[in-house]
Amino acid sequence: VRPAIQAVPDEQQLELTALVTRRRQFVDMRSMEKNRRSLVLAQNKSSTVRKSIDEHIEYLDRRVEELDRDIDGLIKRSAVWKANDDLLSGVPGVGEVTTRTLAALLPELGKLNRRQMAALVGVAPFARDSGTAKGRRSIFGGRAAVRAVLYMATVTAITHNPTIATYYQRLVTAGKRGKVALVASMRKLLCILNAMLRDQKSWTPTAAMGVSL
Question: What are residue 201's phi and psi, to 5 degrees?
Fold first, then answer.
């Protein structure tokens, strides 16, 4: 095994990664607190507990907003990040959380081929065959945090992005299970974003339709 030599991340990249990771941690904590609040309300538990949860949610809201400003400032101070952010945000279904997570946690985007990128993120189907038996193809491994935001972006794109919506519907019509069609659409969207950064070209539905998996 001879892995490709990669450059050591610079201080800006490390800082962006740290900020995006910390933001995700706060968002996860906020989601857990909101779930606890719903449980407390359903069980009519102590108002003191509800107040404590509400105060913690408000604190987490403020911290997420502060981190959003920090991340935004860091992105704008880099000409490359700012240009890439502007390119990717032009894709229907792709928002700030997605573009900034990709900048922080997937700096290889635009630098690898589509198969390498799909495997890196964990949306490439791998065979589970043994002898003459053919197992069901499945995805595993990869960068879970990137895959999570890509999933949400794809769900939005299926509704608001005609290219992804058409691709997804074609797979479903052909008999693919919903989950399989969704993962394939995630891979399609990832390949489109990879091609856009590689070629430094803005979003166009025509060009996106021609991107191979």
Answer: -120, 140
Q: Is the dihedral of CA 213, 202, 173, 149 positive or negative?
A: positive
pLDDT digits (tens, 9 = 90+) for 39-58: 999 887 788 999 999 999 99
Q: Between the CA of residue 52 and those of 33, 47, 64, what are the distances in Å?
A: 10, 9, 19
Sign of CA dihedral 20, 22, 28, 34: negative
* Burial degree of 87 (CB within 10 A; 0-12, 13-18, 19+): buried
Query: What phi and psi values does residue 164 have, to the nearest 5 degrees?
Result: -70, -40
CB-CB contact of 100 with 122 (8 Å): no
Centre a 10 Å sphere on the Cβ of residue 199 and count the other Cβ atoms it contains.
11
* Cα–Cα nearest to 80, from 132, 28, 171, 12: 12
C-alpha 155, offset from chain centre: 11
The helix-helix angle for 79-88 and 178-199 (nearest 10°) equals 140
* Euclidean distance between CA atoms 105 and 170, whole angstroms: 31
DSSP 135: P
Q: What's the rounded Cα separation, in Å, for the pair 180 and 83?
A: 33
pLDDT digits (tens, 9 = 90+) for 122-159: 998 755 544 454 545 555 568 999 999 999 999 999 99
Two structure tokens written together for 120? 């890196």
